[in-house]
Structures are given as C-alpha cells and as structure tokens.
Amino acid sequence: MTRSPVELVIFDCDGVLVDSERICVRVDAMVMADLGCAFTEAEIVERFVGSSVEVCTAAVEQRLGRRLEKDWQQKYEHLYRAALDADLTAVDGIAEVLNRLTTPVCVASNGDHDGIRRNLRLTGLSDHFAENIFSADDVATGKPAPDLFLHAARSMGVDPGRCAVIEDSAYGVQAARAAGMRAFGYCGGLTPASRLEGPRTTVFDDMRELPGLLAAVTH
After folding, report:
1. Read out DSSP for the chain?
2. Residue 171 in contact with residue 109, Cβ under 8 Å?
3. pLDDT tens per residue, range 43-96
4. How far apart are CA 54 and CA 73, in angstroms?
5. Residue 115 region, left (φ>0) first, then alpha (ψ -120 to 50), else beta?
6. For residue 19, which of 109, 106, 119 has the smallest C-alpha distance?
7. pTM for this one?
C-alpha cells in the first residue's frame, strides 16, 4: 500500500474550527478605542488576525507611543468571553469535515489552552481532538514563527513534511511554510485569498472541500 503524503492534519482554531474572528475583531476595535489608539476593523483584520499577543501589543504600544502594563489584556477578557458565549458557532461545514477525515488531527493555535478548549466545548468540537491541542504558550515564539507547528508535529510523532496545516491567516500560512509543511488557506472567513496565496499553499473557500483537497495531495 502506498504511504499517504499527509499523516497529520493540523488545524488552527479561530477562524478555522470556530467562527470567532468576526466576534473578536469587533471586540478588538472596542478595546483599542478604550486604550486610546483606535484601529479600524479593516486594520485589525490585516494586522492582527492570526498574530500573537506580542505582535498585537507591539503595534498598540507603537501607536500609543508608550508601554502597556504587562497583563493589560486581562482587563478586557470578560468582554471577549461574553461575546463568544453569546455568538460563537463552529465554522460552517467543519463538523462534517472532521467526521469524514480518517487522518490523525490536532489543533495548534496562538490562543491559550483555556481559551482553545473553551471554544471547542462551546461549539461541540472537543471530542475530535481529545488532548491533541497545542498552544503558543507551549513554545518560545508563536506564529508566524514555525515553532508551534513543529512542536505539534514532534508531539504527534509525525515528520513535518507529512503534515498539512489548515489556516485562515497570513501569519498562519507563513508559519506553516517556514515549518516545511503544506498549507491549506481557508479564505471563507475574513482574510482574502490574495493574503493566503504562496508556495505549497492551496487556497479554498468552502470547508467541505477540504477532505478532497487533502486526498489529492501527491507529494
């Protein structure tokens, strides 16, 4: 039997498994206005979707012209929780995809473990991943660095070259390429296809297409 080129499918969480990006961008705009450094929702999508806390903090500090307190985000966490509790749903078609896939799967997100697990529970997706959940908190540097994806592959015992990464952000596909993995850029959310395109990257806009796209990988 021919060995499959894809032995592990690594899913980002926000915008790929759970439809949280639209919700969080709305709250992000409120938070940044409260800090005194207004960003438009379009700017937030372009600069922050899929990025790490460090990237976001640096941009806010640059616009403010001053340093923020170390744990400045904690003051606003209740706003995100309330918004997600009220409106969070699974990405359209993802439950069907997860039910169809026979390849091992895991989650690798720049979010923290508590937030990832909470969002998966809210949307009924937890059982698909068990303990195979990896956070940027597990590594020195989050996306767009490759560290998180390499950590996930190592933990799952799979060579990076045999991993497929499902991402919806420019930072995410950049991290996948840097890790030597094949990237699948989902443009059915907020990030336009043009920001996801690149080498070893397949861009698609309907999550239900994913099993067929993965099956078509030849090398």
Report:
1. -PPPS--EEEEPSBTTTB--HHHHHHHHHHHHHHHT----HHHHHHHHTT--HHHHHHHHHHHHTSPPPTTGGGGGHHHHHHHHHHH--BPTTHHHHHHH--S-EEEEESS-HHHHHHHHHHTT-GGGTTT-EEEGGGSSS-TTSSHHHHHHHHHHT--GGGEEEEESSHHHHHHHHHTT-EEEEE-SSSS-GGGT--TTEEEES-GGGHHHHHHT---
2. no
3. 888 888 877 778 888 889 999 999 998 889 889 999 999 999 999 999 999 999
4. 11
5. alpha
6. 119
7. 0.89
145-175 pLDDT, tens digit per residue, is: 999 999 999 999 999 999 999 999 999 999 9
The tokens describing 135, both together, are: 């956070």
Question: Which pair of structure tokens corresponds to residue 111?
Answer: 């979010």
